[in-house]
Amino acid sequence: MRLLDNLEVIAREKRLKVARAILYMAQGTFAECGSEAEVQHWMRYNIFLLLDVGTFTALVELLNMEIDNSAACSSAVRKPAISLADSTDLRVLLNIMYLMVETIQQDDLADKPEWKIIRETFRAELGSPLYNNEPISVMLFGMVTKFCSGHAPHFPMKKVLLLLWKSILFTLGGFEQLQSIKVHKREELGLPPLPEDCIRVIRSMRAASPPASASDLIEQQQKRARREHKALIKQDNMDAFNEKDPYKADDSRDDEEDSDDNDNSIEAETFPLERDEVMPPPIPHPPSERMSFPKGLPWAPKVREKDIENFLESSRSKFIGYTLGSDTDTIVGLPRPIHESIKTLKQHKYISIAEMQIAKEEEFQKTPLSVGEEEVEMCATELLYQGILPSLPQYMIALLKILLAAAPTSKAKTDSINILADVLPEEMPTTVLQSMKLGVDVNRHKEIIVKAISAVLLLLLKHFKLNHIYQFEYMAQHLVFANCIPLILKFFNQNIMSYITAKNSISVLDFPYCVVHELPELTAESLEAGDNNQFCWRNLFSCINLLRILNKLTKWKHSRTMMLVVFKSAPILKRALKVKQAMMQLYVLKLLKVQTKYLGRQWRKSNMKTMSAIYQKVRHRLNDDWAYGNDLDARPWDFQAEECALRANIERFNSRRYDKTHNNPDFLPVDNCLQSVLGQRVDLPEDFQMNYDLWLEREVFSKPISWEELLQ
């Protein structure tokens, strides 16, 4: 309590000293602890104590003060080089807030009952407009845009984005919660239950071997030939293998990268997943449960209502010569096999929550009076959407700008934003060891930024899609307009294997290891060797998230799928298949599946391994002609028309639900009581009062009024 009182003193140095004392408490008063477990125990204890006495509210007020600190902003704008010293106050505050949110959002079975109550209250407070009339995430989004606009270049972006991610994760919920919300919503709408639990199916998947490239095949043949002491392969055979298909022409790096494929591919089984990520940790399955999965395809096939309609239409015109529109029940005159086909299609019919929401929205637009007022459930997702709705396009552009600056494929340009303000020290390194350490730190810093942004975007897209499809479409469309699709493809246009096996962390400096143990002397050699991990979980996590975002943006959108084709994403995505991790491969294969029919016969012929992997791993849509390309969908595409139609629907939804000022005057209640209408005070302008008699003469007396017609 004494520390909290001192947080409000005017002198900046005193405030900073007190904030650091609170940070030391939040870090588990580590100087008095002997082991990592002890540090973590006291961290949890102290953080609940700090929360109970109201520390978080005080921190939010201080953070607001720092955000509005115009003197700090203007001095940072004028500085030629910004360093760690410019953001000290902000970093200490954000550190404490991050530790509090991150520790409390982790559910621990050993927590006391009163802690559980505090936790739920805190979750509700974070997501509601309690702190300065907006959810905490909206305030952090404001910081991101202010940083990107160049008005506050000293903001520590990594910490802001991490806090933003964890706040969204805590208030809206992770993937387990998403799954349960989905199940609950389907029950409410009277829809049949989901055919399977996606998280479990993906966990039980095995990774496939990546498709071999021409150079790999040659190498294998050569090895075989050497082993059998036979002559080398004939020259004409090699020529046959070296023939490049037209889609590989632009992919010069394919060969040299593929050659080391067999040596350092990561086996899927060696992936232990960290516990604090968006993707929940794998539950150790007993062997019996593993075996209970049926042999065959992992996903139950799905069919949309539209697919059944199309099938019936084509069957009717073929066998009977007439069509019945959207009637899916009349099967008179159709042969028996068609009856069986329709029965199978209907068995696998899947109606999504989104389809129900779109139908309901159409009803609201057509008959607003008879449908009545819509009851909107004020959940955390709804409150967040209302908070970010006015500036959502700016927020999306800002996040993508930072993602571009942090991507490893980006070249350092003078006009790109400086995201290293909270990693560069005041004094630049003088020794080789210092500069190596800083190099690792800068790379780690960028990786964490990519991780946080990818997680924020994916969580928002998934939650908005469940809450209302048009909220999701609004965010997705602004991401597409801000060039998110080419940006993600550019991110993957690198050696993904080396990105996922990057060693940009110094494990002995990780908290709480570094405060409990004696630090060994760091040398250039030990830094170069890195840690023993075979891979970098952080980067794999970012890659999977970005692939999922790309899937979300392009699914069922013909024009956006064609963007994938136009940007030549196939060779880029094929390279990403080298990472032998089932979840990542699944989302790459999904992206390849949607564009297969547009890539031409030659591509399909030379990529049969990829085609069979798609068949094995991706969900089947019955009568979806993805593999052959003789489909109606190979029509010319009009990007603008599709996006404009979607945009019109989104705008109608937003103005109906959130824009109370522009209500249609025809639907407002009319006051038809003579007393109250005449009793209303109407302020008339001065010039009207002066020329009142002229107006009477012109508008009333000189105009003939046919009273009979008026009364009729």
UniProtKB/TrEMBL annotation:
Residues 252-266 have a biased composition (Acidic residues). Residues 210-280 are annotated as: Disordered. Keywords: Cytoplasm, Phosphoprotein. Its main location: cytoplasm. One of its GO terms (biological process) is cytoskeleton organization. InterPro entries: Far11/STRP, Far11/STRP_C, Far11/STRP_N. Residues 1-237 form the Far11/STRP N-terminal domain. Belongs to the STRIP family. This is Striatin-interacting protein 1. It comes from Solea senegalensis (Senegalese sole). The lineage of its organism: Eukaryota, Metazoa, Chordata, Craniata, Vertebrata.
